[in-house]
Design a protein that fits this description.
Helix content is about 35%, strand content about 20%. The strands form two sheets. It has a seven-stranded mixed beta sheet with strand order 1-2-6-5-3-4-7, sandwiched between helices. The chain folds into two domains: about 1-145, Alpha-D-Glucose-1,6-Bisphosphate, Chain A, domain 3; about 155-294, Alpha-D-Glucose-1,6-Bisphosphate, Chain A, domain 3. It has eleven helices and twelve strands.
Length: about 290
């Protein structure tokens, strides 16, 4: 598996498979028990068998007696990041290929700045505990990380201010882990804040789940039909990378290109948001961008 920016990734069933992921997590756990780590929060996106891979990660960590909180459902990066931030000496793992094509999957480690481990060892043996046994013994707990994350977003973003503005928004999760987030945040204003691709689709509709223009045909078409007062917001499979579509200029703009706008806007507001969250959490940053436009 290749490693960059906190993500081990490879082609599904070849560089990335249950055996190799198990070896990787065993090496990580062997390192973490020495620190020690208080808890590991594990989530996953909507890729093929991502949930199964996440369970295996939990079983390996439980065998090392490292407490695990396992997400009950597909969970965006921001939810795992916030859970990790709240916990002292906690670590987050997210089974995700990010914005890569459907044939790739990976394991993202949070917080940022993690140093990789040596994967050159051959036939590495690793311990394993059955998921149900580990859960019954209290080594693994299951919970929804999305619910706490929604509360976090409501605290950090003025959702009511966005609702009161004249702007309408079409959200596109690209069949990824962020699906349903906008619906819950703007449930009382569904005519102005709509969401598309609210379905499980491990192949992401046959497209690469990266929010570039060529992958946002549906979002662009629907946004154009609604008129110039509507913009589109799209998130990648894990909710990290985002873009917005401006129908007036007929342009798709990467979220990274307007991050400075968000940072400047936050300077005028008394809200404590970590630079890491602004850099990595595309859902949070895109909502703050919408707030800055009102």
């Amino acid at each position: 598996m290749q490693y960059d920016d906190g993500l081990y990734w490879g082609m599904i069933a070849q560089q990335f498979n249950l055996h190799k992921v198990s070896q990787l997590v065993h090496l990580l756990a062997s390192q973490w028990v020495k620190e020690p780590i208080s808890r590991v929060y594990i989530g996953y996106d909507t890729r093929f068998q991502a949930g199964l891979t996440a369970k295996r990660c939990s079983e390996i960590l439980a065998a090392h007696r490292i407490p695990v909180t396992f997400a009950k459902e597909a969970t965006p990066l921001g939810a795992v990041l916030q859970a990790t931030t709240r916990g002292k000496k906690a670590v987050g793992l997210l089974v995700t290929g990010g914005a890569r094509a459907v044939e790739y999957n990976g394991l993202r480690i949070m917080p940022a700045g993690f140093k990789g481990v040596d994967l050159s060892q051959r036939d590495l043996k690793y311990p394993l505990v059955d998921f149900q046994k580990a859960e019954s013994n209290g080594w693994i707990q299951q919970m929804s990380l999305r619910d706490d994350y929604l509360n976090f977003l409501r605290q950090k973003v003025d959702i009511e201010k966005i609702k009161k503005g004249k702007l309408s928004v079409v959200f596109d999760s690209m069949y990824g882990a962020a699906q349903g987030m906008a619906t819950k945040l703007f449930y009382s204003e569904q005519t102005r804040f709509g969401e598309i691709h609210l379905a499980e689709h491990a192949m992401f509709g046959g497209l690469c789940p990266f929010p570039s223009r060529e992958n946002l045909t549906d979002l662009i078409t629907i946004t154009q039909k609604r008129g110039d007062s509507t913009i589109g917001i799209a998130w990648d499979a894990e909710g990290r990378t985002w873009s917005y579509y401006n129908p007036y200029r007929n342009r798709v703009v990467a979220g990274a290109d307007v991050r400075v706008v968000v940072e400047q806007y936050l300077k005028t507001r008394e809200r404590e948001i970590s630079p890491e969250a602004i850099r990595m959490d595309g859902i949070l940053t895109s909502l703050l961008f919408l707030e800055s436009l009102v």
